[in-house]
Specification:
Order of helices and strands: HEHEHEHEHEHEEE
Number of domains: 1
Oligomer: single chain
Bound molecules: NADP nicotinamide-adenine-dinucleotide phosphate
Low-confidence stretches: none
Strand content: 15-25%
Number of strands: 8
Largest sheet: 5 strands, parallel
CATH superfamily: Dihydrofolate Reductase, subunit A
Radius of gyration: 17 Å
Length: 204
């Protein structure tokens, strides 16, 4: 994120990472069973979500996409025969859309948003996924924070001020109404790399 907590500009440009930070993120990816993002991030960034800046194995990719709207031309979709991909759709998602994605090699599982992320995490555990790197965007991060499911927050503060009330921030959604109710975390480490700061917080 930028110094002012933005993870993208108002137009959705999120290319904040330096080369060295990309290597750090990819190293981190390789140590997790899965990477998880929301569908807006896939729509806007069209990411690959693999490990390519360092050597390491690709984690499973998990996309939260209630309507099963993932484009069949997205980088995720076209590489899903090579890299294991799970799409989490609503039980009410269009069946034809689901079949189209399954044909590409995507494992579509269903989970109702209103039943919360804990149920989804239990299902994923059943599929052998025990650690998840949640990579955003702000709406997805908020749901994990709101449901008290964040063990650690590992954040690179990039030396930029982006601004914009409409720009995505690290944690969006409705937010907590009072500081007393917000998620409190403990600083575990802090490293300066050139003009960047990498901070690691854990759950209290
Ligand atoms: N700088 C960075 O490191 C970084 C990283 C990631 C993203 N980004 C930026 O973040 C922006 C996108 O963030 P965003 O907040 O708009 O979207 P997002 O978190 O990527 O996606 C949110 C969408 O995910 C779907 N979803 C399904 N189940 C969900 C659940 N249980 N909880 C939350 N979402 C669920 C919802 O759409 P449906 O209801 O249609 O399913 C929701 O609208 C982009 O500009 C991207 O570039 C930056």
């Amino acid at each position: 994120m930028s110094i002012d907590g933005k993870i993208a500009t108002r137009t959705g440009d999120s290319e904040l990472s330096s080369r060295s930070d990309l290597r750090r993120v990819h190293k981190l990816r390789a140590t997790h069973d899965a990477i998880l993002v929301g569908i807006n991030t896939v729509r806007i960034d069209d990411p690959l979500l693999n490990v390519r800046h360092v050597r390491g194995r690709d984690p499973v990719r998990i996309i939260l996409d209630a309507a099963a709207s993932l484009s069949t031309r997205s980088q995720i979709a076209v590489t899903s025969k090579k890299i294991k991909t799970i799409l989490v759709a609503s039980p009410r998602a269009d069946k034809a859309r689901i079949r189209r994605l399954e044909k590409l090699g995507i494992n579509v599982i269903t989970s109702a948003k209103k039943s919360g992320l804990k149920g989804l995490l239990a299902k994923l555990r059943g599929l052998g996924i025990r650690s998840i790197l949640v990579e955003g965007g702000g709406a997805t991060n908020w749901e994990f924070v709101r449901q008290n499911l964040v063990d650690e927050a590992i954040i690179c503060i990039a030396p930029r001020l982006i601004g914009g009330a409409a720009s995505s921030t690290l944690v969006d959604g409705a937010g907590f109404a009072r500081v007393a109710l917000s998620a409190k975390m403990r600083l575990c480490s802090c490293a300066k790399r050139s003009d960047e700061l990498i901070v690691r917080y854990s759950k209290l």
